[in-house]
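Budget justification aside, the reviewers requested a transparent look at the raw inputs and outputs of the sequence design task funded under Objective 1. We therefore reproduce one unedited record. The lines immediately below are the structure tokens for a 104-residue chain.
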């Protein structure tokens, strides 16, 4: 996945003692995305805006807030998270890479 004509933020967003790291970009149309990597572990994220998480490499398991089912995702798959919600993501091994798009 490649993005052209963007403004990139050099300072990383670092979560969970460096086990989740992302960088942000702003596209020409004003929309924003983050992309990064997740090391093995279990992490919970809250969402203000609705978002789409696209897995670009590796694998993960996800449970959306309010749901009991666990879904597995690998490269070229995605999941959507409602606004004002959250999700728990588990990476069992290796590194999971992602692109997060904020949905309108």
């Amino acid at each position: 996945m490649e993005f052209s004509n963007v403004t990139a933020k050099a300072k990383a967003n670092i979560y969970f003692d460096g086990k989740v790291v992302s960088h942000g970009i702003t596209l020409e149309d004003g929309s924003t995305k983050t992309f990064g990597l997740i090391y093995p572990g279990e992490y919970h994220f809250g969402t203000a805006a609705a978002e789409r998480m696209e897995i670009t490499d590796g694998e993960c398991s996800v449970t959306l807030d309010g749901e009991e089912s666990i879904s597995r995702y690998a490269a070229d798959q995605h999941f959507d998270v409602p606004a004002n919600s959250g999700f728990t993501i588990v990476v069992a091994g290796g590194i999971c890479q992602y692109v997060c798009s904020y949905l309108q």
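The domain at 7-102 is CATH 2.60.120.10 (Jelly Rolls). Residues 9 and 86 are 24 Å apart (CA to CA). Computational costs for records of this kind are itemized in the attached budget.
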